[in-house]
């Protein structure tokens, strides 16, 4: 009994609140619990503080405190004139800014570059904000319409025909190269040891080429008629629009359900017509600015955006090809990936710029910038292929089987089930490659293209601005620009990753 | 007796040199419920995966609702549209909500408008008793709920035959019951079902026939009563003695 009595307890006075004996909150608390709570941490804190001291302080001094903010030429940035040890020479950046952004793009035409930038931002920002509607239309505008418009804006020039003429021209080129190959065989058959065989094959190829020539004759004839008449662009446009709309109508389900497809293709053609009219493409378009005049940030952005946008589909296609059950596709993909991963980007660029022209047929020339673009896209594509493959490998086999059991075709299974999951797994890797691509664009300056870094280095040689700190200022500026873009991509990818992986959080 | 809706004749399959399925003959009539059991590795999964062409086979023929599936696997798509399948590991699509899991195939395979597909999906989700979780992701549900979603997903395609490959063996005991109840309901509605399972209670209650497989062949097939009361083959007896301990 007494045991129980002694263990019972009733409180008489309530205790008042009192502060913790050791402060664990606020700045002092932070110092105590996080920064100086163990010998190792004390050491790390001191090293960290020193590191900050030796990096941040000089940077701020150079960029802000000791910087010269205004001036007309190098005189303003010389220590003798400024009266102190000069840091960054900002008037130099100010003076060279147009060159850093546009390169040698003619001054009178620079509004076209600005307009392209504005268009890009206007189309890209809504695409990146998940809450905004109409992603399908927005994406098709950005990925299909924008590149075409940007080309005619930046490069200039007009069109002489439309779909029909282009198709006819392409087929003709194809046919010509077949006949050319056949004739080359025929002529070499005269000297070769296996002459009769070559003669036979050559004749056969020429025969095929001639057959194709007759096959496409109606098309080329129509093209010539259209080109001969005035208003060739619009006649061609009308013919192409009619044909494509009819095909869309037919494929979309004909009279029963084709209305939607017909309406959207008519809408697309009206939009195309508006663009042609607005930019005067039928009357020669804007004055041509050759790509060797482009430079600065413009080239950096053109190269990196094209590279980013094209390398992902290339990578996905190669990754799928590498896992294909069809040996030919698999071997091709493996060879392609391993080849591009095995050579340095510089080699690729050199090859694309100086050697590719030697391989292409005589009358077929590709612009220098485009060659570099293709090289970079393929190079990055090979890397992205391996990233994507990593994601594909992480998808359990049951996913594909479940989709197949529901009756989904391989294409639908891949695009609706496998790829969406695989790509989510590898967003960090994909963006990693994008970021390194963005910085690797600076290598194009090796093949005589002046990107941001190239333009910057070109501007160093201007005697008007040569001071001891010019180069440092320029590189600091370029560094900040690159950092803004790369950091932006990195943060945005984190956001996307977080959002798309909603299903993995409970 | 109606014609068989699934007719398997002379089915032989090899994995490399390994003869997994040997001379399988099996007719399933419309509305019939068949339970397939047998020791591990006897080829049960392989057999039912052949029926909807998830596995190819070298000899024999499978006819599903008049559609012929030979060794060259023509008509795969047509057959798969008639046959629904539920897997041991659910295989829901983790990046899609429950509702999207159920509307994906109707929309993309049958070209049904999204609204109608969603209405149908909700109907089936109600039938498996989880209409309130339609907007959750599979990862946020219990195993039993996931498996019921998987059943609903298969049903949205209006299959004529449902295949179940050990639908309850990845589940905790309490969840087994909710899934089995769903399957019993389905059987009550006259669905043709081929079920690989070790749930002998389910077999007794629902099956028209129990098929016992061992070493890639059908050893014995009988009504549940006969099968459990008077097994004929020595291997069947051994298996039953082990499983019904
Ligand atoms: N892809 C494969 N390649 C080679 N052998 C396989 C393959 N898949 C299964 N097997 C073999 O085929 C046999 C039958 O497998 P199956 O999965 O059909 O068995 P099961 O009866 O379903 O067994 P369980 O009850 O364990 O699921 C097993 O011996 C297995 O090892
Ligand atoms: Mg199995």
Automatic annotation (TrEMBL), chain A:
Entry keyword set: Cell membrane, Membrane, Transmembrane, Transmembrane helix, Transport
Keyword Lipid metabolism: no
GO MF annotation terms: transmembrane transporter activity
SUPFAM superfamilies in the record: MetI-like
Annotated ABC transmembrane type-1 domain residues: 297-493
Domain of life: Bacteria
Membrane topology: Multi-pass membrane protein
Gene3D superfamilies per record: MetI-like (1.10.3720.10)
Pfam families attached to this UniProt entry: BPD_transp_1 (PF00528)
UniProt main location, coarse: membrane
UniProt keyword annotation of Transmembrane present: yes
One of the protein's GO biological processes: amino acid transport
Cellular location(s): Cell inner membrane; Cell membrane
GO cellular component term, pick one: ATP-binding cassette (ABC) transporter complex
Family the entry assigns: Belongs to the binding-protein-dependent transport system permease family. HisMQ subfamily.
Full protein name: Amino acid ABC transporter permease
Originating species: Bradyrhizobium nanningense
From TrEMBL, chain B:
Gene3D superfamilies: P-loop containing nucleotide triphosphate hydrolases
Keyword terms: ATP-binding, Nucleotide-binding, Transport
Record has Transport as a keyword: yes
Residues of the ABC transporter domain: 6-240
GO function terms (MF aspect): ABC-type amino acid transporter activity; ATP binding; ATP hydrolysis activity
Domain of life: Bacteria
Record has Repressor as a keyword: no
Function comment: Involved in beta-(1-->2)glucan export. Transmembrane domains (TMD) form a pore in the inner membrane and the ATP-binding domain (NBD) is responsible for energy generation.
Family: Belongs to the ABC transporter superfamily.
Protein name as annotated: ABC transporter ATP-binding protein
Organism name: Bradyrhizobium nanningense
Lineage per the UniProt record: Bacteria, Pseudomonadati, Pseudomonadota, Alphaproteobacteria, Hyphomicrobiales
């Amino acid at each position: 009994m007494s045991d129980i009595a002694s263990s019972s307890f009733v409180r008489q006075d309530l205790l008042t609140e009192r502060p913790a004996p050791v402060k664990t909150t606020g700045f002092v608390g932070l110092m105590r619990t996080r920064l100086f709570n163990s010998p190792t941490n004390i050491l790390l804190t001191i090293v960290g503080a020193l590191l900050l001291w030796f990096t941040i302080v000089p940077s701020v001094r150079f960029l802000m405190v000791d910087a010269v903010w205004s001036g007309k030429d190098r005189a303003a940035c010389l220590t003798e004139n400024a009266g102190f040890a000069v840091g960054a020479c900002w008037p130099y950046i100010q003076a060279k800014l147009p060159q850093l952004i546009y390169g040698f793009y003619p001054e009178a035409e620079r509004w076209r570059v600005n307009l392209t930038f504005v268009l890009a931002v206007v189309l890209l920002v809504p695409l990146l904000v998940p809450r905004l509607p109409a992603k399908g239309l927005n994406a098709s505008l950005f990925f299909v319409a924008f590149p075409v418009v940007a080309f005619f804006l930046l490069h200039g020039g007009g069109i002489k025909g439309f779909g029909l003429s282009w198709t006819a021209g392409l087929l003709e080129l194809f046919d010509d190269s077949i006949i050319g190959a056949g004739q080359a065989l025929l002529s070499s058959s005269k000297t070769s040891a296996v002459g009769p065989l070559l003669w036979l094959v050559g004749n056969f190829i020429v025969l095929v080429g001639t057959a194709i020539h007759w096959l496409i004759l109606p098309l080329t004839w129509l093209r010539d008629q259209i080109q001969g008449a005035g208003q060739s662009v619009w006649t061609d446009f009308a013919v192409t629009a009619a044909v494509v709309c009819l095909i869309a109508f037919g494929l979309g389900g004909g009279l029963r359900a084709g209305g939607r497809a017909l309406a959207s293709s008519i809408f697309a053609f009206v939009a195309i017509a508006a663009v042609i009219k607005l930019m005067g493409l039928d009357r020669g378009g804007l004055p041509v600015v050759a790509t060797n005049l482009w430079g600065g940030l413009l080239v950096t952005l053109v190269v990196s955006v094209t590279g980013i946008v094209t390398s992902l589909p290339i990578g996905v296609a190669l990754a799928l090809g590498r896992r294909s059950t069809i040996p030919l596709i698999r071997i091709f993909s493996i060879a392609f990936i391993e080849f591009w991963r095995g050579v340095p980007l510089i080699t690729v660029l050199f090859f694309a710029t100086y050697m590719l022209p030697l391989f292409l047929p005589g009358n077929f020339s590709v612009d220098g910038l485009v060659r570099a673009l293709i090289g970079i896209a393929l190079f990055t594509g090979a890397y992205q292929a391996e990233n994507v493959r990593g994601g594909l490998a992480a998808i359990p086999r049951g996913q594909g089987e479940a989709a197949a059991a529901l009756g989904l075709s391989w294409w639908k299974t891949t695009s609706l089930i496998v790829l969406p999951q695989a790509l989510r797994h590898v967003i960090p890797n994909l963006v990693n490659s994008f970021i390194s691509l963005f910085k690797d664009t600076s290598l194009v300056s090796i093949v005589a293209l002046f990107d941001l870094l190239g333009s910057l280095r070109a501007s160093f040689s201007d005697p008007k601005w040569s001071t001891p700190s010019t180069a440092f200022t320029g590189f600091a500026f370029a560094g900040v620009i690159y950092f803004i873009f790369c950091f932006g991509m990195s943060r945005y990818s984190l956001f996307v990753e977080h959002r798309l992986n909603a299903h993995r959080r409970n | 007796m109606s014609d068989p809706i699934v007719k398997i004749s002379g089915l032989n399959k090899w994995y490399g040199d390994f003869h997994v399925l040997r001379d399988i003959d099996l007719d399933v009539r419309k509305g019939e419920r068949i339970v397939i059991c047998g020791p591990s590795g006897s080829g049960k999964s392989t057999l039912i995966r052949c029926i909807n062409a998830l596995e190819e086979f070298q000899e024999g023929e499978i006819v599903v609702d008049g559609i012929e599936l030979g060794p060259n696997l023509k008509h795969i798509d047509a057959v798969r549209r008639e046959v629904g399948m539920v897997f041991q590991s659910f295989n829901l699509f983790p990046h899609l909500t429950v509702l999207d899991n159920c509307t994906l195939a109707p929309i993309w395979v049958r070209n049904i408008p999204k609204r109608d597909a969603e209405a149908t999906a909700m109907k089936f989700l109600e039938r498996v008793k989880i209409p309130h979780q339609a907007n959750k992701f599979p990862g946020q549900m219990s195993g039993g709920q996931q498996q019921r979603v998987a059943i609903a997903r298969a049903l949205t395609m209006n299959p004529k035959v449902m295949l179940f490959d050990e639908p309850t063996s990845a589940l905790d005991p309490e969840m087994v019951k909710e899934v089995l109840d769903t399957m019993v309901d389905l059987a009550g509605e006259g669905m043709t079902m081929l079920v690989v399972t070790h749930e002998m209670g389910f077999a007794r209650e629902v099956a028209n026939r129990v098929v016992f497989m061992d070493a890639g062949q059908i050893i014995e097939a009988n009504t549940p009563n006969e099968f459990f009361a008077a097994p004929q083959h020595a291997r069947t007896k051994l298996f039953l003695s082990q499983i019904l301990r």
